[in-house]
Amino acid sequence: MNWNDLRYFLVLAEEGSLSGAARRLRKEHTTVARRIESLESDVGTKLFDRLPRGWQLTTAGQNLVPVAERVEQEALSFERQAKGDEAAHGVVRISVPPVAGRVLFAPRLARLLTAHKGLEFEIIGAANVVNLARREADIAVRMVTPREPGLITRKLLELGVGLYGAAGYRDQVPEPDWEFCGYEDTAYGASKKEWVRTVLGRELPCRFRADDTETVRQFIAAGHGVGVLPRYLGDKDDRLELIHADTDGHGRETGWLVVHPDMRRSPGVRLVMDALIKAADEIAEEFQI
Fold it and tell me: Can you give the pTM of this predicted structure?
């Protein structure tokens, strides 16, 4: 059997749908289906029932999940330790929030790391929290406090946020009629919603939600309501108007550097960590808001 198919099996078991597994694996859904069919053929049993609402584990599939998880953990541990002992070459995968990665980190990383010809760098603009233990990335920058046990974390920087509306929104729409352009129901989204409630003294109705900052910015610019954006993004958009600044620091976004202990030994990962720390210092100096 192809042992790589176990990863497809576990991700599909967790996601419950081909589309969800494909997004997480960054593969086509047809590839996911083909790998599962190949695995079922190799082990000689049906692992999933194909139902209209998604792919559901069979009894045999449920029994194999813990076994597959143990095999995966051992294989990943082997891979991480091997990579941790290698020279500074190969691919280093860096997970960053999409907008912060594009606007803040990517240009600075490209400049800081250009001298290291033996390394390749892959920037993963991930709105979701990648699993470092599964090597979905080698190193991550997160704008939410890391909660997973066993990871090495370091506070990188703090960035100001503000409550924005489209230019003229607060003059044209009475405040009691304001609506909120928010984020998905995550820890990040909840913190922004709570900050707005504190600032305005009430909770705004929310009909527009997104899982990324850029989409929220477009909602606000289109006049659908007010919303929270980082100052480095909102202040540079002429379509937007700053309604309330985070003057007390309660709404600030904290950026964290996160790496798995096994990967910290990798010379390539250490180079990227140093570059991210230097980039964060430059960002903090430029955006002293």
Answer: 0.64
